[in-house]
Write a structure and sequence with these properties.
single chain, 219 residues, alpha/beta, Rossmann fold, 7-stranded mixed beta sheet, 7 strands
Length: 219
């Protein structure tokens, strides 16, 4: 719990000012977010959760794409959630998207929202900022309904890009406490197998990003 508090304080410090320009600046380099949302394809009437929802930008796009689905979001930063709630009010979606402050490694949807599980869970460019990211993946799989899918998009290994670009990008990301998870495929594959789920991964934009889908077996 102490680590979660430290992480919460760090996130609030980072985003206290950045949250006001976050969406305007991130659209240029958080590649693949809308592609992931388009491929969520949740069943009608189902529940979808975003872990690390930030300003709720992704939830708003998803809610408009899938109006017959219930959406939920959690984040550890009170600053980001304040911006998210204000934006949802402005967009008229405050009653369609439910938010809660929570530690992604230890959340319980029954306590937060009164629901048992989700048909889709997604994590967009926030896993690389979470110190205990493996635990986040494990927790997400715990609350995935049978037949459900966990979608993750984040920075990749940039293997198809020039070395100077990779070195420069990673040096710049470190300034913002961002660490690309190069072991994502291996870790998610192992966690998935233990949970009865199969993992597939893509590396779009010449490896700039990585996009993983872990589907839990069952119906």
């Amino acid at each position: 719990m102490a680590e979660a508090i430290v992480s919460s304080e760090l996130m609030d410090r980072i985003y206290r000012r950045q949250r006001h320009v976050y969406d305007a600046t991130r659209k240029y380099y958080l590649l693949g977010r809308d592609r992931m949302i388009a491929r969520l394809a949740p069943p009608a009437g189902s529940r979808v959760l975003e872990i690390g929802c930030g300003t709720a930008r992704n939830l708003i796009v998803a809610a408009r794409a899938y109006p017959d689905v219930q959406f939920f979001g959690i984040d550890i930063s009170a600053e980001m959630l304040a911006t998210a709630r204000r934006t949802l009010e402005q967009e008229g979606l405050a009653h369609d998207i439910r938010l809660a402050r929570a530690d992604a490694t230890a959340f319980d949807p029954a306590l937060l929202f009164g629901v048992p599980s989700f048909s889709r869970i997604f994590v967009s460019y926030s896993l690389s900022m979470m110190p205990c990211w493996q635990a986040v993946l494990g927790r997400a799989l715990t609350w995935l309904a049978p037949g459900g899918e966990l979608h993750v998009v984040d920075f990749g290994g940039q293997e198809g890009l020039p070395v100077w670009f990779r070195v420069g990008l990673r040096g710049w990301l470190r300034l913002f406490h961002v660490t690309p998870r190069d072991e994502l495929e291996q870790e998610l594959t192992l966690l998935g197998l233990r949970s009865g789920a199969l993992t597939a991964i893509e590396r779009p934009f010449r490896g700039y990003a990585q996009y993983a889908v872990c589907r839990r077996l069952g119906v």
